């Protein structure tokens, strides 16, 4: 960790060289797949179906995107994905912040028991079938609420908020209490503004989780109107028949022959559409969640 | 972090009217109650579903109208040789992949140590930023990427290998069962290595810089500094994470294997979680419940064992 500038010994220079190359290669392997996918979706579909696009796009066109986005099931699935991401994240962050804050209140009746009973849920689960049967009995199959209700309490988020709030000087809240602020008031005016870094972290975790969720759709939803983008993508990857039907039913707008949709082009385009929101949002939030996880790691 | 430490004020109980405190006691609980109810409904209530393991339950028929069969479904595990063989195969896969995961859990440690050795700050940042991206995409997306890179018809990897003359015929990476344990662990680390290293980078950042300066003065080489300062500095973090992963030994999760499973590699890829899913989808609810019950029991035992181990070894409990 010492980075004093001084002359490198030959052995050190070799060592530096090796780790630069190793990290370079691994980093490349982490981003090349995304790049590869992107250049294939904007290149001639014939060339990409033949595997001829490797390092740079050829015969650029954007027909894939305009056509795939026009598939009706797909745009509806995108809406469902956006809905669950926005609503789910909003509820999860609100609940984590509020409950995490309440758990810092030593005078709460039975605080230790309640807190432990929430944390313990990180370590056990009833299993897939009991969970499914419960969700079924609660009428949460084929129901939009199934996407947002179960995530409200995420123990890890609550631990993060609790440890963060405990580091805030109690005097701040005391003085607010003197001025007559109740629990809700001091939560909103003192705790929320001071915990923004950790709330930002929870926001991105929760949003990514919601966007990526897939198993709940596979299990709970039989009606196509509840399908999410992830679920459709999985179906397109696995069932060539659903993909063929998709290509047949897509509105064919007098495209030149080399831009005809192929199974490969549809698969790649859908993948790109699902991955894009994450790639776009990622740079803006990167510093928040690195900071957030570090706070959690050092304190936790 | 922007929040000043409250250490000085800790322990100084401010004088407050006690009536207010009493009021707060139940008011605070009532405010938390809706969230505790949600916790109960989605985490504790499903445990009541374990009862289905003791009935010949068929989806669609109410439990009260199905016969009680006692331990029948648990006995099936050992009574029928074919069934036992299946379970053993699945157990073998589970243990193999979890063991590979445990054995390679030093990867993020090595990654973090080597990354801090890089002198150019911008390059460190660049590597750290880009290698965490895969952590944020779903396993379905990972599979979609794998599919476009490695498939037989148009995957770029096969094309390059054939053109270079490394292989004469395209190799079906995704449908082969012979290397599936290794490819699964490789994808796992591709996705989580950069992210996993962040915790260790935080731990390394927390090491007192004066230790390095003192070692420098004493003429310690780069490797001696790593071995005597950095490694001891992050070992506590490593142990906590290792013990936690022991508790999860039988829970490999299923999304990864679910995404990558196909008819060709099913034998080698089916871990317990995926097995439960597959038998559940074949509508054998009671048996799937019985298997996941056993799985939960084993997990809890392992967690307590790891916790005891942690108490003995490090005098610190993890739960």
Give a structural overview.
Chain B: This is Sugar ABC transporter permease. Chain B: Belongs to the binding-protein-dependent transport system permease family. The complex is a heterodimer of chains A (300) and B (319). By secondary structure, chain A is mostly helical. Chain A is built from 15 helices and no strands. The radius of gyration of chain A is 25 Å and the shape is globular. Chain B is mostly helical and 319 residues long. Chain B has one domain (85-314): MetI-like (MetI-like fold), CATH 1.10.3720.10. In chain B, 66% of the residues lie in helices and 0% in strands. In chain B, helix 4 crosses helix 8 (180-205), helix 8 (180-205) packs across helix 10 (222-247) and helix 13 (272-281) packs antiparallel against helix 14 (285-314). Chain B is globular, with a radius of gyration of 26 Å. Chain B starts with 17 loop residues before the first helix and ends in a 5-residue tail after the last helix.
